[in-house]
């Protein structure tokens, strides 16, 4: 991701954006873990870092699309937990990266005790 300023260009690596999203998700109440819950997804998660599991970020034409696959704590209101996580990620990206066009999609992959 390249941000143009009056002094030149600033390049932000994709891993930095994923780390920002990961930390915002972890700080959200009710999120137990991240990642898809299928058999092949679990195998693929064995070889990936924790910060990249369940996070997909696409940047096109100055717009950031974030897809999160979350496992939530059983017994909590799913809609409220997902919405709070969505808001936390959105505000963290807007405040830290100064992006205005951000879309955060939350996919509930499962529930865990």
Would you write up a description of this structure?
The chain starts with a strand and ends with a strand. The mean pLDDT is 85. Strands 3, 4, 5 and 6 form a four-stranded mixed β-sheet that branches. The protein has a two-stranded antiparallel ribbon with strand order 1-2. It has one domain: Cation efflux protein, cytoplasmic domain (Alpha-Beta Plaits). By secondary structure, it is of the alpha+beta class. It is elongated, with a radius of gyration of 15 Å. Helices cover 35% and strands 35% of the residues. The longest helix has 20 residues. It holds the Pfam family Asp23. It comes from Oceanotoga teriensis. This is Alkaline shock family protein YloU. Belongs to the asp23 family.
Whole-number average pLDDT?
A: 85
At CATH level 2, the architecture is 2-Layer Sandwich
Q: Which percent bin holds the helix content?
A: 25-40%
Fraction in beta strands? 35-45%
Q: Which runs of at least 5 residues are low in confidence (pLDDT < 50)? A: none
Shape: elongated
Overall structural class, as computed from helix and strand content, comes to alpha+beta
CATH topology: Alpha-Beta Plaits
How do the SSEs run, as a string of H and E?
EEHEHEEHE
Number of strands: 6
What distance lies between the first and last C-alpha atoms, to the nearest angstrom? 38 Å
Pfam families: Asp23 (PF03780)
Organism: Oceanotoga teriensis
Family: Belongs to the asp23 family.
Protein name: Alkaline shock family protein YloU
């Amino acid at each position: 991701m390249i941000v143009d300023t009056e002094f030149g260009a600033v390049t932000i690596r994709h891993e930095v954006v994923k780390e920002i999203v990961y930390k915002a998700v972890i700080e959200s109440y009710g999120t137990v873990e991240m990642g898809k819950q299928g058999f092949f997804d679990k195998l693929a998660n064995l070889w990936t870092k924790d910060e990249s599991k369940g996070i997909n970020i696409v940047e096109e034409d100055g717009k950031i699309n974030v897809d999160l696959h979350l496992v939530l704590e059983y017994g909590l209101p799913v809609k409220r937990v997902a919405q709070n996580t969505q808001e936390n990620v959105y505000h963290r990206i807007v405040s830290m990266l100064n992006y205005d066009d951000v879309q955060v999609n939350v996919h509930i992959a499962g529930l865990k005790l």
